[in-house]
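User: Can you help me understand a structure? I only have the sequence.
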Amino acid sequence: MTPAPTDAPGAPRSRADLFWSFSWIALQGFGGVMAVVQRELVERKRWLTREQFVEDWAVAQIMPGPNVVNLSMMIGDRHFGLPGALVALAGMLALPSVLVLLLAAGFATVADSALAQGALRGMGAVAAALIIATGVKLIAGLRGNPMGRAVCLALVALTVLAMVVFRVRLAVVLGVLGGGGCLWAWRCLRPAASSAGEVPRP
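Assistant: Let's start by predicting it. Here is the structure, written out as tokens:
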């Protein structure tokens, strides 16, 4: 059964609102898409809290396909069911695809230019800074995590060490640290669930 749209504050007003919101996010998402998504969905539209964004982004990241596309479909489905997911997907892909094709055609004529190469390096540095700044903002979303802030920060540090210093494959990091985090969260949630008569499954 398709869930009915919600008119509650902090939700898309309509499928059209969903489409244009994700179109605008996609058009801004050059290089630092995570920073744009977090700002638009959490700080401006307030469709998600920081905690919800961290949780949804984690799920979107382990699913096949681009993270932001996965996230858009999750949000669309949550509010409007399958039609909402398809509308969100269309918003992420329609206008940006046209723009990217135009930019690719234009860039092909100057790709070997030293000026163009220098500009791209500068944009790469800004994109990296945006991602780091967004990560720092999202640390506050770990405040209510059932594992506790110390464990969360330890997992963050281990992930950075594994990826940056030791260059461990992403699949291995997700399997070991991500799987370990899931099991630890299940262990932390189990006492509260048991007292309520519900035992969570790992």
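Now, to help you interpret it: Confidence is low (pLDDT under 50) at residues 1-8. Helices lie at 15-28, 33-44, 50-62, 67-107, 114-138, 149-165, 170-195. Let me know which part you'd like to focus on.
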